[in-house]
Specification:
binds adenosine-5'-triphosphate, 5-stranded mixed sheet, alpha+beta, elongated, Heat Shock Protein 90, 490 residues, single chain, 3 domains, binds magnesium ion
Length: 490
Amino acid sequence: MKHEGTPNGAVVPRGEGAGAPDPGERPSRHRFGGLSGKLLLLTVLFVMLAEIFIYVPSVANYRDTWLMDRLTTAGVAASVLAETGTIAPRLQEELLRTTGAVAISLDQGTRRSLIAMSNVPGDVDFVIDMAVVTPFSSIANTFQILTYRGDGLMRVVGVGQMGHTEHVDVVLPVRLLQKDMLAFSGRILGLSLVISGITASLVYISLQALFIRPLRRLTRSMDRFAENPEDTSRIMAISGRRDELGEAELRLAAMEEALSRTLHQKQRLADLGLAVSKINHDLRNLLASAQLFLERLEHVPDPTVNRLAPKILATLDRAVSYTQAVMSYGKAQERAPQRRLLRLQRVCDDVADVLGLVDHDTVTFEVKVDEAVEIDADPEQIFRVLLNLVRNALQALEAERDAALVRRITVEAEREGNSVVISVSDTGPGIPENIQKALFKAFHSGSKHGGVGLGLAIVAELLRAHGGTIHLDTARPGTCFCLKVPDRAA
Ligand SMILES: Nc1ncnc2c1ncn2[C@@H]1O[C@H](COP(=O)(O)OP(=O)(O)OP(=O)(O)O)[C@@H](O)[C@H]1O
Ligand SMILES: [Mg+2]
């Protein structure tokens, strides 16, 4: 398969992914519950919301126009009256029919004359003076009329025609205006639904094309890669788009590439590790046989042999313990801690026993742990933690030659709430700064006694498994490790 470079150096297979059908494609769980579905709903909602803001002033405006129309029509009749002094009954009827009015009269200041009237009974519930209409009063009255229940009348007063001073007074059934306003609202609602439907569909379609499809491609690629991360042909193919999604593709491809490379390296290291432990295993057996031969040599009455044999034996001893340490580290991870409540003081006593510290010639071992201090930990693992720390201190103290030096190792512990805090300190030379950085990493040793550099790595691993912590307290002279072991969660 051909590969091509990407801007960030990731190597990706050509023609993979983009548009290519994926055999392992999973059906989408979302459809309308997904992003685009949600956006579809939101768009409809927002367009409707926007329509409300448009609807309120426009329905009020509709009311004003409707009323003004009635006044104008009545005003025309009024001007006929003003000129002729009378209106024919046929014209009156026509006037009432076209305006829907119950009564129309003209107010000329000094004189008030009735132009037309039908005998429809009812109370006047609203009086609307078109000369003093403000946007607010108009909106308020619009909603009063829209929600009006009853068969009452309204009186509308205003100047009937431009340039005239006479006031026209029209009495109309409220229902008439209400009916027209409701019809108008219905039209606006229908229109809003059509607009929001169209907008939402357009948003949905463009979202599908712009986001959802590329996102699905991204997820599919992740799934495919996750199935076999070591297969570099499964790395995300770059589509070349320049937006945020293109950026995400680039990052994902780079990450998959790095992950794949790391996995390859790890696999090689694991193979190497296996080989090393096999060699180690045989080496240990060979060393053990060499030890046996040497022990026999010790009895040969030769002064040179007698002088050198113990030294070679000690060196072989060290080599054997080295191979063992490497092998035990190479084994699988530590088992999960099996925690019990322990008396910490007893554990310290065991450590002293094993290390020969009970009546040591030069080193004093102080356990400042109250008998009552109980720790919730795996007995064997917490023992190994303390053993490693105390052994390190002992090795550091024993390496010192000056007889006047104080050689003391102190273990202190107390309970602080749900944790036990332990400190292991000594009066030795302290830990050189250059090895402090990688102190808890495996195979970092600064010892002259042939240590492998695993002790503290194991200590840190065991404490982590207990949810605990360890750190080196550099404020004190000598060496002081502070440990914290929390109890199991209830
Ligand atoms: N109490 C201490 N005083 C001085 N140096 C210490 C002390 N504890 C640890 N160190 C330094 O930290 C290094 C790392 O310790 P660690 O226990 O991890 O490995 P090691 O003792 O060298 O080997 P191993 O424990 O695997 O036999 C030691 O080599 C030593 O230089
Ligand atoms: Mg050690």
